[in-house]
Amino acid sequence: MEGPLFVRAVSYRVIVALAALALSACTGAHPPARSPTGATPDATAGPLATGVAPPARAEPAFCQSPPRRSDQFHARRVTARWRQVTPHSSTAWFSDGHVSADGTLWAVLHDDGETGEVQRLTDSTQERVPTPWPGKTLKLAMSGDRLWVLTGAGQSTYGIGSRQAGHWYSGPLELASDSVKVGVAVDGLGPWVMASNRTMRWNGHAWQQAPLPDYGDSLTGTAEAPWVLFDERARVPLAQWTGRAWRLVHVPRVKEKWIYLNAVAPTRHGEFWALGLVTWDEEDQDHEPLSRTRLLALRWNAGRWSCFFGPTDENGEARFTDAVQDGRGGLWALTYDNELWHLTEGRWTRERPPGMRGIEELAASEDGRHVYALGWAVWKLSR
Q1: Is 149 contained in some domain?
Q2: Which of 176, 181, 263, 261 is nearest to 211 (CA)?
Q3: According to the model, what pLDDT value does residue 158 have?
Q4: How far apart are CA 142 and CA 51, in angstroms?
Q5: Are 199 and 193 in contact (CB under 8 A)?
Q6: C-alpha to C-alpha distance for 74 and 297, rounded to whole angstroms
Q7: Per-residue model confidence as pLDDT tens digits over 170-187
Q8: What long-range pairs does 325-330 form, CB within 8 A, spacing at least 24?
Q9: Residues 73, 295 contacting (CB under 8 angstroms)
Q10: pLDDT in tens, 118-139
Q11: Pairing relation of β-strands 347-351 and 198-202?
Q12: What's the confidence (pLDDT) of residue 134?
């Protein structure tokens, strides 16, 4: 079965360099950035895992797609509770947000040339955080008082560095031998960094590696309950960290349709929601293919899946693009058309703040108390 129109494109991949700085050093005046010396590498410890765990089967194996106009979310529209914290821009956008416990947002600001710089935002301030590596800043990772900055290196290795007392330390780690051929997707989540078919976790003192069962596309979930999403070429879309190793997690199939997932959000103990879309192709009267999609949310509780579908979008655009936990047993989700959906106590609501547009992702603190929406501007949820 050939892939749908929705995904017939090749994703861009990058090789990365990874640098880290102490967050405490970023709260005041910044010393001049300088090149890393590479004198002493960050510590590395024994492996976090040496293999992968057996995969989790999908129970049930199939979900029945309801009639075209059926809406199983019944999301009620409510008054928006989000406030804009940065002005809109037509040339620059925010991505890869990470939120510290006090509500500070760390993000990458890209200009129209796609060069990224690290930004620190609070309720009253926005400041640039200089790094010693010029070029594109691609992703961030964060743990305690440390922020790791992932930047494009264009090599077959990437470095790990930390800034202490104004001095940078770095040491490269080898990627898998075939990573350069297939390209590398990189991402960060809390103390986790993903590159190619490996992950690393900072244990507070050193990096530890754990292999993935496939080449990862992005990290999702939370620092304590991370998941990895694989791209459209993978046979299984998800991997879950069990506490000891990564394992593939199969999801139910939908007859003659494809499922694509964009985020996983933990809600309660043993309960997760995976959100994205279901898509298929139809033909018009001239036998030309047309893409159709539906919003899709999969609830995983105690090892069993439940499937929830939105109505068919005849334009083929409907999808959830991101999701984060709300810290209260629910979640926030972002749709393709910049609506913010909230699941709480089993009920869905939807809201659209006036003037909100160009939002690409959500970011939340580990406890879910602070939630941001990022894109051509930054918005924050008002509690």
Answers
A1: yes
A2: 176
A3: 46
A4: 25
A5: yes
A6: 13
A7: 544 444 444 443 456 888
A8: 325/222, 325/265, 325/266, 325/267, 325/364, 325/368, 326/364, 326/368, 326/371, 327/364, 327/365, 327/367, 327/368, 327/369, 328/368, 329/267, 329/268, 330/267
A9: yes
A10: 899 998 899 988 776 655 667 8
A11: unpaired
A12: 59
> Which residues, including other chains, have CB under 8 Å from residue 297's CB and lie 6 or more apart?
73, 273, 274, 275, 307, 308, 320, 333
Q: Cα 90 to the chain's mean position, in Å?
A: 23
CB burial of residue 284 (10 Å; 0-12, 13-18, 19+): exposed
* CA–CA dist 91, 76 (Å, integer): 34
Count how many domains the chain has.
1
Q: Which structural domain range is residue 206 located in?
A: 13-45+56-381
Q: What is the pLDDT of residue 33?
A: 41
Q: How far apart are CA 176 and CA 295, in angstroms?
A: 36
pLDDT of residue 354: 87
Write b or e for each residue in 235-255: b if 16 or more Cβ atoms lie within 10 A of its Cβ, otherwise e: ebbbbbbeeebbbbbbbbebe
In a domain? residue 216: yes
- Pull the structure tokens for residue 311: 């109505």
Q: Which two tokens stand for residue 237?
A: 């879309």
Contact 27, 160 (CB under 8 A): no
85, two tokens: 């914290």
- Distance separating alpha carbons of residues 175 and 99, to the nearest angstrom: 28
CATH of the domain at 177: 2.130.10.10
Round to whole Å and give the CA distance between 240 and 216.
Answer: 12
Helix, strand, or coil (residue 180): helix
Residue 283 lies in a domain: yes
Q: Evaluate whether residue 2 is within a structural domain.
A: no
- With H, G, I as helix, E, B as strand and everything else as coil, classify residue 160: strand
Alpha carbon distances (Å) from 122 to 146, 325, 341: 17, 21, 24
Task: State the Cα–Cα distance between residues 18 and 160, nearest whole angstrom.
Answer: 5
CB atoms < 10 A from the CB of 361, how many? Answer: 20
Segments of the chain scoring below 70 in pLDDT: 1-3, 5-43, 113-114, 132-137, 151-184
Which DSSP helix (H) or strand (E) runs through 181?
helix 179-182
